[in-house]
Each structure stands twice: as structure tokens, then as C-alpha cells.
Amino acid sequence: MTKIWIDAGHGGKDSGASGNGLVEKNWVLTVAKQLQTELVKAGFEVGMTRTNDTFYELSDRAKKANSFKADLFISLHFNAGGGKGYEDYIYTSVPAATVEIQKIIHKNIIAKVTKHGMNDRGMKKANFAVLRETAMDAILLEAGFCDSTDALILEKKAYQTDYCLGIVAAVQEIFGAMVTKYRAGKYLTSDDAISGTNIKGYLEAGTKVFVYKETEKTLNLTTTKGVPGSWVLKTEVNTGKR
């Protein structure tokens, strides 16, 4: 099973950024717990740096993820300093595959958060300890600026939910999704799935799939990444894709 490590930034004596009534260590912990729930629901094994208001040194965060043998490390933060918008970071020197992972994560999060009015500040690189010392692909996410009008977006539960779902969608695109409902009908086209005609067979629970294409009500799921598959109704599968 694919392992994802969630690193809720700061904690304990380290409050992180604060502004407009928001405190970073609290916000990221709330989001980390929600993200954990969504990832587990989607069929991933999840480890967490912290589940309460505890301080960990940066090196210990990386050691915990390395010991867990995670496939992906996601560090959650928000920003301060007068800017506006979402941005993410990978280490300064990484293989091309890590750059592609950043592109996938950035694309999926931006697709969710811009509809809430959050700006896109782009994909960046930095020599952050948690990115440098982790043994797996690692990314640090900055959800917005608490000392700007972004705070009005960050505090909304709807934004937090969509933010988490964007991350889950990215993780599924990278590693594949798991069909967790009992059985789902496979159809030739999206319209067939909606009307229930031209059924081709069934996807069984536990099947690992990749999302090839998506509409409002249907998904094209494939067992071979990048190759078109069969259409299913979103209501018939639980891949975390919403």
C-alpha cells in the first residue's frame, strides 16, 4: 500500500505565522487531520508528524517520515509577510520525477482553490530542511497568507475541504486510486454510464486505478496510467475523487 506522510508544520512552542485571528500551528493541524481522513478513505496508508500541539525539530520530522518509509512527504503550512496566494516548494536539487510530482500537486490544488479566490503564486524551490533531509519525494505547501485578505479564505471550512481534496486528487494521479466500493459498472462512454447502457463489465473493490478523465458525474478509470479506460459513475466508486 502506498504510504503518505503528512507533516503539520510548527506546533507546541512554535506557533508559526499568525494574523487576523489565525494561528498557523492550529490551522495546519486541523487540515492535516482532515487530509488524513480523506487519504485513508481513498485507500492510502498515512503517517503524521503530529496529531496534537507538539513541537518537533525539523530533523526529527524528516527522520519520522524516513522511518515510516513514506512514498511521499507533504508538509502543510500557511504564509505571512504581505503577499497573497498559494505556492508550493520542492528542494533545490531534485530529479525530474520530483518536478513532475510538484506539477501534478500544484495543478490539482490550484484547480480547487482558485474558485475560492486564492491567487496562484507558482511552483518554487527552496533549501528547506524537511525537503532536504527526507529520503522520499517531498513537497511543502503554503496555503495562503494569514496577514492579508487570504485569511478570509483560509478560515472557511469549504476552502479547507477543497484544499484537502485537491491534495488527494493529486496523490491519486501520482500513485493511482483504489476502488473501495463493492462493485462498479464499467461503460463505453460517459453518457452510457449516466444512462446505464452498454455496460462492459465491472470494477471490483480493491482494484487499483488511475483517473484518466473526469466529468461532473463520471470518471474514466484505467488500470494502466495514461491509457484510456472505462467510464463509471462517481456515485458507484469511492476513490476520493469528488
From TrEMBL:
List the molecular function annotations (GO) for this entry. Answer: N-acetylmuramoyl-L-alanine amidase activity
Q: Top EC class per UniProt?
A: hydrolase
GO biological process terms held by the UniProt record: peptidoglycan catabolic process
What are the record keywords, sorted?
Answer: Hydrolase
Q: What is its EC number?
A: 3.5.1.28
Residue ranges of every copy of the MurNAc-LAA domain listed in the record: 62-172
Gene3D superfamilies assigned to the protein according to its UniProt record, in alphabetical order:
Zn-dependent exopeptidases
Q: Tell me the Pfam families matching this sequence.
A: Amidase_3 (PF01520)
Cross-referenced InterPro entries: MurNAc-LAA_cat, N-acetylmuramoyl_amidase_3
* Gene Ontology cellular-component terms listed: outer membrane-bounded periplasmic space
Query: What name does UniProt use for this protein?
Result: N-acetylmuramoyl-L-alanine amidase
